[in-house]
């Protein structure tokens, strides 16, 4: 009876442990975002509910990842996705040998001979004119879109799938913290730019109103309006934007911004499913067709202002597969 009452109040040992873990995660977030927020006495109470919301949301994203891709030489023959993500076995070996995290993982005998990891890439599409058959005729001016991937990185190497899932949740919280820090930095940059523009506009206005001042045209980088009505119109645009950014620049404003992201993480950290049908040259095949390879990806979209997109793919790497790649392509 007494223990049930303690659980209801959140005073039992398990509840206190969860509260300590939540408080530690908030502190870690503050370290990433802005340590000055600790000057506010209520920052823990303000951010704890949003932290719980973000934890639940981020843990649900793991179920959206595509099937695991095996990174090996034989994988190029068995799984056509591998040939679309890498230019060849040499580029795959360059990634595997260049990953410090993977190297440290395999240096520990307790981790075993297999690693599950997250492969992140930058997807780009290039438009060009190429050669293709069209209505039975060979044409050299057919518009094509070539899809390529670069900037490959391996993250969170883990000894099994369960450990990989656990690490993914913690890593996602770190990434969300970085997204918040970047959002705050971009807002501060925008505030500084508008502060500078406001000062220049006020000087231009004074010059236009004074008969004793002369404005010299052709100044390098001078993009200010040249008439008094145009200056006033721009001032009316800048002032409300600047007032909002100044409010966010205060400690209370920063805390409110962090709280907003934590309580609505889907607006700043989301996964979008992308399905591409590509031929073996990476050319996108349009329309309904059974030709080529269907490449299913999840792309993470980070931030609202100047969002960053990265393609994600869970992968499995065997120690012997790396050795085989080294024997065949180590001197390439």
Any key phrases for this structure?
332 residues; alpha+beta; 11 helices; 23% strand
Describe this structure in words.
Residues 180-211 form a coiled coil. Keywords: Coiled coil. The longest helix is centred in the middle third of the chain and has 49 residues, at 161-209. It contains eleven helices and six strands. It has two domains: 63-177 and 263-329, no CATH class; 179-252, no CATH class. The termini are far apart. By secondary structure, the chain is an alpha+beta fold. α3 packs parallel to α10 (251-263), α6 packs across α11 and α8 (161-209) runs antiparallel to α9.
Category from helices, strands and their pairing: alpha+beta
**Overall strand count:** 6
Point out poorly predicted stretches: none
Span from first to last CA?
71 Å
Number of structural units classed as domains: 2
Give me the Rg, rounded: 27 Å
The quaternary state of the protein chains shown equals single chain
Count of helical regions: 11
Please state the average pLDDT score. Answer: 85
- Shape from CA axes? flat
- Element string (H = helix, E = strand): HHHEHHHHEEHHHEEEH
Largest sheet, if any? 6 strands, mixed
Q: How much beta, percentage-wise? A: 15-25%
Question: Can you give the helix content as a percent range?
Answer: 40-55%
């Amino acid at each position: 009876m007494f223990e049930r009452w303690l659980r209801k109040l959140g005073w039992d040992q398990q509840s206190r442990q969860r509260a300590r873990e939540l408080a530690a995660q908030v502190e870690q977030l503050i370290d990433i975002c802005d340590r000055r927020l600790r000057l506010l006495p209520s920052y823990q109470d303000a951010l704890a509910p949003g932290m719980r919301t973000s934890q639940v949301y981020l843990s649900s994203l793991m179920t959206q990842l595509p099937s695991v891709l095996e990174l090996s030489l034989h994988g190029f023959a068995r799984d056509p996705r591998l040939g679309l993500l890498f230019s060849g076995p040499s580029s795959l070996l360059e990634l595997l040998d260049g990953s410090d995290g993977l190297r440290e993982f395999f240096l520990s005998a307790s981790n075993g001979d297999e690693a599950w990891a997250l492969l992140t890439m930058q997807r780009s599409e290039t438009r060009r004119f190429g050669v293709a058959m069209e209505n039975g005729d060979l044409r050299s001016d057919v518009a094509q879109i070539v899809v390529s991937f670069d900037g490959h990185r391996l993250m969170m190497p883990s000894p099994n799938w369960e450990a990989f899932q656990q690490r993914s949740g913690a890593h996602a919280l770190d990434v969300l913290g970085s997204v918040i820090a970047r959002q705050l930095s971009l807002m501060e940059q925008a505030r500084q730019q508008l502060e500078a523009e406001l000062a220049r506009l006020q000087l231009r206005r004074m010059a236009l109103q004074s008969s004793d001042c002369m404005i010299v045209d052709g100044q390098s980088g001078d993009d200010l309006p040249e008439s008094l009505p145009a200056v006033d119109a721009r001032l009316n645009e800048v002032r409300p934007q600047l007032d909002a950014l100044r409010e966010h620049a205060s400690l209370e404003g920063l805390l409110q911004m962090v709280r907003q992201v934590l309580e609505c993480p889907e607006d700043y950290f989301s996964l979008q499913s992308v399905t591409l049908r590509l031929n073996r040259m990476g050319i996108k095949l349009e329309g309904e067709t059974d030709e080529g390879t269907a490449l299913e990806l999840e792309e993470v979209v980070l931030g609202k202002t100047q969002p960053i997109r990265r393609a994600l793919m869970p992968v499995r790497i065997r120690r012997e597969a790396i050795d085989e790649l080294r024997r065949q392509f180590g001197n390439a």
